[in-house]
Design goal:
Jelly Rolls; 136 residues; single chain; five-stranded antiparallel beta sheet; 1 helix; RmlC_Cupin_sf; Cupin_2; Cupin; 48% strand; RmlC-like_jellyroll
Length: 136
């Protein structure tokens, strides 16, 4: 019985990892979007981790509707973005601006400038869940 339970737990972990890779790759492969993983650490809160990513988006490109299994804190490094967050009025942010996106809220980001736009995204999320979940 223990072997079956261990097998099921292993299978679930592999499925979670594969889902994370597929969804994260789909987001990174949207036309021109580049995601650079900077760091990932377990937090003292059980089952939570922090992940930092630099996201670069060329002019006119949209990061389509998606959500995360936790909070996202955004710091705009360069360029101009329009962020649309579920239940809120769209907001335009430029270098030096910040944005908080609550857990599970569907949102998108579009580079509305004429140059590269980049953000530092810090995620405080549930460990083992896909970081990016694409939405319709």
């Amino acid at each position: 019985m223990n072997k079956i339970i261990n097998y099921l737990i292993s299978a679930m972990m592999v499925c979670s990892l594969v889902t994370f890779i597929i969804v994260d790759s789909a987001m990174a492969q949207a036309p021109g979007i580049k995601r650079t993983d900077l760091q990932r650490y377990d937090l003292s809160a059980a089952g939570r981790e922090v992940i930092q990513v630099r996201v670069d988006i060329p002019p006119g490109v949209l990061a389509p509707n998606h959500s995360h299994p936790g909070e996202e804190l955004i710091y705009v490094l360069e360029g101009t973005f329009v962020y649309e967050v579920e239940g809120k009025v769209p907001v335009t942010l430029k270098a030096g601006d910040v944005l908080f996106i609550p857990a599970g809220k569907v949102h998108s980001a579009k580079n509305v400038g004429k140059t590269n736009a980049a953000e530092l995204a810090t995620y405080i999320v549930e460990k083992g869940k896909p970081l990016v979940v694409l939405k319709q």
